[in-house]
Every structure is written in structure tokens, then in C-alpha cells.
Amino acid sequence: MSDDWFNEQIAPDGRAEDGCHPDEAQALQSYLNNETVTQEAAHAITQPMLSSDDFGEDIHRLWNLFQDALIEVSATYIPPLINLLQAIQDLPDPDITSKATATRPSRTGFTWKGLPGFGHLWADLYKQDNWRNDLSATISSSPTLTDRLKKRQELRAAHIKRTNIEARLAVANVASIPLLDWGYDTIADALELDTAVLDFEVPAAREWIQVAGKELYQGAIEGKESWALSRKRGMGREDERMSLNRWDFWEGRLRECLDRAEIVGDAGKEAGEEMRKLRERGK
């Protein structure tokens, strides 16, 4: 990765909301350049935050750095980034009693487990309910048909990549990402929502099925409950308990996608084949 990307992440004035600490950027760059091992990088990249007098706020600076990296860098870097996040959440809990102040006397109980705040920050940035309206407005603002098609393609690729990352984080048990909730929500939106943006959402469903299908199918076998399944989407399938019947319904909906345009049809075929394999292995 180029030096420019890491330099752009650094806060010019040292303010957490404006970017990361130089040592955090350096630690991440050294790790992704294979100059340090995972455990060494985990200790190095967390030191600026632990040394801060306001580490509770500065932790968002660190998570922003990771999330920007996951979204912006080449897909080849995603596995090592997730490995580094796993190593951070496995770090021993720091002793922060010395950070107590008159205005914030309670400075105990901090833990790296679950990467506190990471999942909420990701959801705030990338899982807004109004994203479909924003998508339509963004594409419509492009001046020509060619520009609109290009913009749609760019946004679709970014949407699919984000979904793939979410599924990978969930399977790796990083940042307490709720695997069943987020996975079922993505799939149900794609296959049950009457206003679904199919060329975005069917490929997104495919990502979850391919990455986390084993866990999602096991949830169907066990009848796991999820808030995502009880949302009204227009097809009368509302039931907070997952089931094999709903799994079969999803397979049927994916077969219907085969007659659609190439992007939706290809994604539907790939997702459907994976669901069928999971069902056959589960017999």
C-alpha cells in the first residue's frame, strides 16, 4: 500500500475526529507491509489510545482507521486486517485506574473484548434504513445516462464489498457483530422486501450465504430467533423464529431471480446453489 493512503489518515491537528494518531498509521502500515507480526502490531497500534488522557473518545479514532482500511484497500488486505482486529480483542484488559479525573472518576472495567463501539460505529456509517432513498438520489444527480450507469456500478461494488466484510467480521466473531441478525436481515430484505434494489441486494445476500451460510442454515435447523425476521416486508413472512420452511422459501425466491438481468441472475444462481448444498449436507 502506498504511503499516501496512510498519510491521509493522520489527523493534521491531532484531533481524534479529524484522523488517526501517526503511530497508529505507522503500526498498521508496518503490519500490512509484513514488517511486524500480528501480536506485535496489536500492541503497537493500541498504545496511542491507551496513552491518551481521553482514551474513551480516542478509541473511535482507532476504529475509524480500521474501517476506512477495510472499505478502501484491496480485498487482499481484508483477511490480515480481520486477524489484527481479532488479536486486539484478545489483548489483556488494560489497567486504566490512573486515568480517573475529577470529572470522570470512573475509569475501571475497560475491556478489548468485542471491540467496544466498533460495531455501533459501523452500523451508523453503513447500515442506515434510508440507504435506498439516498442511493436513488445520488444516482439521479448524475448528468447523463452513462454517468448514472457508471455511478450505479461503483455504488453496487462498494455495497457488495461492505456486505462481504460484515459477514467475514461476524464469522470471525469480531466486534460482536450479530451474525444471525445482520445475515438474516440482508437476505430477507433481498428476497422478501417488495421495494428491494435487486441488483444491490441479491448480490449482498449471496455474500452472506457464501461466507456465513453454515451458521445461517444451522440457525434455521435450530429455529433461532432474530429481530430481523419479524420485520414487515410485504410478503407475509413475518416470524421472529427462523425455520427450514423460510429457508426453502428463500431458495424459491432465488430461483425466480434466474430470469432477471445478468447481475441479479448470476448472484441468484450462486446463492441458490450454496443454499441447496447447505441443505443437502444438513440432511
Provide the descriptors you would attach to this structure in a database record.
283 residues, 64% helix, mainly alpha
Question: What does this molecule look like?
Answer:
- By secondary structure, the chain is mainly alpha-helical.
- The protein is built from 12 helices and no strands.
- It has helices at 3-9, 22-32, 38-51, 55-72, 78-89, 118-126, 131-140, 145-171, 179-192, 198-222, 244-257, 262-281.
- Helix 7 packs antiparallel against helix 8.
- The longest helix has 27 residues, at 145-171.
- It is globular and about 55 Å long.
- The N and C termini lie far apart (46 Å).
- The relative contact order is 0.07.
- The model has no long low-confidence stretch (mean pLDDT 90).
Structural class: mainly alpha
Helix fraction?
55-70%
Cα-atom radius of gyration: 21 Å
Average pLDDT metric: 90
Strand content: under 5%
**Overall geometry:** globular
How do the helices and strands follow one another from N- to C-terminus? HHHHHHHHHHHH
Quaternary status: single chain
The low-pLDDT segments are none
End-to-end Cα distance, whole Å, is 46 Å
Q: Give a short account of the largest sheet.
A: none
Query: What is the number of helical segments per DSSP (H or I, 4+ residues)?
Result: 12
Count the beta strands: 0
